[in-house]
Design goal:
The protein is α+β, with helices and mostly antiparallel strands. Helix content is about 35%, strand content about 25%. Helix 15 runs antiparallel to helix 16.
C-alpha cells in the first residue's frame, strides 16, 4: 500500500489525484490498499502495512480475531456463511458445511484416492479428469468458487476495518503448489473481485515477516519449515543484499495438520471398535470425532493426557506418548523432504543460519524437536505461526506498491519443464529450481522432408522418458513451409511468470509462422506421483540414462537409414553396382541392430554405414559442380 507521511501539493488541473483518509487510523493514503492474504486449509487471514508504523498488521475486524476459519456453510434458504459462524455448523449440518477446500484446489476426483472419505460433505465422482465438484443440496460448486467465498469474506472484513476499498491483493500458496493449483488460486481471487497482483510462495512470505532480509546488509541462508493444516513444504533461501533467492524447495500438497488429526481419529476408531462404514454414513459423528481430534492435538502440545467422551459409548482418551508414536511416520516424512531440499541446495545443516517455523501444526512438540534436531539448532517460532505468512504477504504487497525498493524476491520452479523429442525423450528447457520469472528456449527442426506441422508436447518432471513425467499441454505448429528435413528452424520458448505459470511459444524463423499457448495443466495427476517425481529421478537414474542412450542411438540410426535410402534413390546412377550392394548390406545390418536395444551395437552399425557412404556425397558434389559449370542443371 502506498501512503503519505508528509504534506504534498495537490495538482491544480482537472485530473486531480484521488486522496482518501483511512477513518480507522486517520492517516492519509491512496484510495486503494493492497492487502496480503494467506488462504489456508484450516484458517485464512488478511494483513496490510499500517500507514504510520510501516509494520505489517493482521486485520481483526469487529474484535472477532485475526483468524477466519476456512469454512463455508450454505443455509436452507441459500444464504452463504463464512468463517467463525460457519464453523458452528460442522457438527450440526456437516453435509452443507465445506472445510479444507484448499486440499481440493486443482484436483480431480481421482487425485483424492483414499482421502475422499475424509470429507463430511459430498464430492461428486463424474469419472473424468476434470476438477472435482462439491454437491450442496441441488447445487454444485467447484473448489475455486468455494475458495472465492472465503476470499470475499476476507476482502469484506478488510474493507470494513480499514474503511477503504480493497480491490488488489497478494495471495500466498505453498511452494510446492503445481501450475494447476496456482492457476486455481488466481481464479478464485478473480471471482472474489480481487486483482491478484502476485502469487507468492508461503516460505518467502514467512521469512519477510520474521524481518530476515529487510536490512540490505544482512546475509543469511535460512530454512523455512511450513506445516499447515493441509500442506507441507520446506524451502531453503539465500538472502544477500536484500535479494531473496530460493535455492531449493520440497514438500507435499497433501500432508499437514489434518493428517495428525486423522491419526488420532483412526486410533479412537480402533480403541472403541467403531465400524468404518458406519462412521462414513454418520457424517455428524465423523465431524464430532474430527473436532475432538483437533482439540486433542492442541491440548497435547502442553499436556501429557487428553480425555473426553462422545455420547455414552465413545471414549476419546490419548496420551502424548501415544500421539507421538502415531504421528512419528508423518513427521519423519517431512524430515525426509528437508533432507532432499538440503541436497538440492548442496548444503549441510550446519550451513543454515536460521530455521523458521510456520503453520499451526509446528506447535506440536515432536515436530519442533525433530526439526531442531535435524538442523542442529533451535528452530525459531517466536512469531504466531498462524499469522506469519499473511504478515509476509502484506510486506510483499508493500514491495509491489513501490514502497520498498531494496528487496527483490526470486522464487524457483519445483520441477523441470521441457518438451518431447524423437523417441519419447524429455528435452529439458527450464531445469528444476530455476529462478522465476524466467525465459528459456531451444531450436528444433523437422525430421521428414516436406513436414508442414510440428507437434509440441510440454512435460513437467525429472525423468528422461516423457512417459514417466507429467504432460501439461500439447499443440501443433501448423503452416511450416515444405522444406527438406533439417532446413526449418523452429524456436520453442518457455516463459515462466512470477506466479509460476507457464506460457509456451513456437516460431518457425524462416516463415515467421508462430503459435503460443498458456499452459493450463491437465488435472489428472495424483499426489503420490508429484511426491514421487524427485525420488524416482534418483532411484531410476541409471536405467533412465541407459534408456536415453539407447533411444538416442536408435534415433540416430533411423535418421541415418532415412538419409542413405534417399541418397540411393536420387543418386544411385553415380555409384557402382558393388558400392550399391555393399551399401544395401550395411543398411540391413543397421536395421537388424535396431531391435537389439544394444546401444554399442547400433552405433557401431551406424559408424560402419557412415564411413562407407561418406565418400559418395563428395563424389556426387563434384559431379554436380562439373555439370553446373557445363550449363547443365541436376536435380
Amino acid at each position: 500500500m502506498s501512503c503519505c507521511s508528509e504534506a504534498v501539493a495537490l495538482p491544480k488541473h482537472k485530473d486531480m489525484a484521488k486522496v482518501a483518509i483511512n477513518l480507522s487510523t486517520g492517516a492519509l493514503q491512496q484510495e486503494e490498499v493492497i492487502v496480503g492474504i494467506d488462504l489456508g486449509t484450516t484458517n485464512s487471514l488478511v494483513a496490510y502495512i499500517h500507514p504510520e508504523t510501516k509494520k505489517p498488521v493482521a486485520i481483526n475486524d469487529l474484535g472477532r480475531g485475526t483468524i477466519v476459519p476456512s469454512v463455508v456453510h450454505f443455509t436452507p434458504n441459500g444464504e452463504t456463511i463464512v468463517g467463525n459462524d460457519a464453523k458452528e455448523y460442522l457438527t450440526t449440518d456437516p453435509s452443507n458445511t465445506i472445510y479444507s477446500v484448499k486440499r481440493l484446489l486443482g484436483k480431480s476426483y481421482k487425485d483424492l484416492g483414499e482421502h475422499k472419505d475424509y470429507f463430511g460433505y459430498k464430492i461428486i465422482d463424474d469419472d473424468s479428469e476434470g476438477l472435482v465438484k462439491i454437491r450442496v443440496g441441488d447445487k454444485f460448486y467447484s473448489p475455486i468458487e468455494l475458495s472465492a467465498e472465503i476470499l470475499k469474506e476476507l476482502r469484506e472484513r478488510a474493507e470494513h476495518a480499514l474503511k477503504t476499498p480493497v480491490n488488489r491483493a497478494v495471495i500466498t500458496v505453498p511452494a510446492y503448489f503445481n501450475d494447476s493449483q496456482r492457476q486455481a488460486t488466481r481464479d478464485a481471487g478473480k471471482l472474489a473481485g480481487l486483482e491478484v497482483l502476485r502469487i507468492v510462495n508461503e516460505p518467502t512470505a514467512a521469512s519477510l515477516a520474521y524481518g530476515i532480509g529487510i536490512d540490505p546488509a544482512e546475509e543469511k541462508t535460512i530454512a523455512v519449515y511450513d506445516l499447515g493444516g493441509g500442506t507441507f513444504d520446506i524451502s531453503i533461501l539465500s538472502i544477500h543484499q536484500g535479494i531473496f533467492e530460493v535455492l531449493s524447495t520440497h514438500g507435499d500438497t497433501y500432508l499437514g495438520g489434518d493428517d495428525l488429526d486423522r491419526a488420532i481419529i483412526n486410533y479412537w476408531i480402533q480403541e472403541n471398535e467403531l465400524i468404518a462404514d458406519t462412521l462414513n454414513r454418520d457424517k455428524n459423528l465423523q465431524q464430532e470425532l474430527r473436532l475432538k481430534a483437533e482439540e486433542a492435538k492442541k491440548t497435547l502440545s502442553s499436556n501429557e493426557v487428553y480425555t473426553s467422551n462422545l455420547g455414552d459409548n465413545i471414549e476419546c482418551y490419548i496420551t502424548r506418548h501415544t500421539f507421538e508414536e502415531l504421528i512419528a511416520p508423518i513427521v519423519a516424512k517431512t524430515i525426509d523432504s528437508c533432507r532432499m531440499a538440503m541436497a538440492d541446495a548442496k548444503l549441510k545443516p550446519e550451513q543454515i543460519d536460521a530455521v523458521i517455523m510456520v503453520g499451526g501444526s509446528t506447535r506440536v512438540p515432536l515436530v519442533y524437536e525433530a526439526v531442531s534436531e535435524f538442523f542442529g539448532k533451535p528452530a525459531n517460532n517466536t512469531l504466531n505461526p498462524d499469522e506469519v505468512v499473511a504478515l509476509g504477504a502484506a510486506i510483499q504487497a508493500d514491495i509491489l506498491a513501490g514502497n520498498r525498493k531494496d528487496i527483490l524476491l526470486l522464487d524457483v520452479t519445483p520441477l523441470t519443464l521441457g518438451i518431447e523429442t524423437m523417441g519419447g525423450l524429455m528435452d529439458s528447457i527450464i531445469p528444476r529450481n530455476s529462478k522465476i520469472p524466467t525465459k528459456a528456449g531451444r531450436q528444433y527442426t523437422t525430421s521428414i522432408d516436406g513436414q508442414v506441422n510440428m507437434k509440441i508436447s510440454v512435460y513437467q518432471g525429472e525423468r528422461d522418458l516423457v512417459k514417466e513425467n507429467r504432460k501439461l499441454a500439447e499443440f501443433d505448429l501448423k503452416g511450416i513451409p515444405a522444406m527438406p528435413a533439417g532446413f526449418p528452424k523452429v524456436d520453442v520458448n518457455f516463459i515462466l511468470n512470477a506466479d509460476g505459470i507457464l506460457k509456451v511459444e513456437a516460431i518457425e524463423l524462416r516463415s515467421g509462422v508462430r503459435q503460443e499457448v498458456e499452459v493450463k495443466p491437465q488435472y489428472g495427476l495424483t499426489d503420490s506421483q508429484v511426491e514421487q517425481m524427485l525420488m524416482d529421478s534418483i532411484t531410476h537414474a541409471r536405467e533412465d540414462v541407459s534408456a536415453r542412450m539407447v533411444i538416442e542411438a536408435r534415433t540416430t540410426a533411423e535418421q541415418m537409414l532415412y538419409q542413405v535410402e534417399r541418397f540411393l534413390e536420387k543418386n544411385g546412377e553415380h555409384l557402382t553396382e558393388e558400392e550399391i550392394n555393399l551399401t544395401r548390406e550395411n543398411l540391413q545390418k543397421l536395421r537388424d541392430a535396431l531391435p537389439s536395444g544394444d546401444k554399442d551395437q547400433i552405433l557401431k552399425a551406424v559408424d560402419i554405414l557412415e564411413e562407407q557412404t561418406s565418400p559418395f556425397a563428395e563424389r556426387v558434389m563434384q559431379i554436380s559442380i562439373k555439370k553446373a559449370m557445363a550449363g547443365k542443371k541436376i536435380e
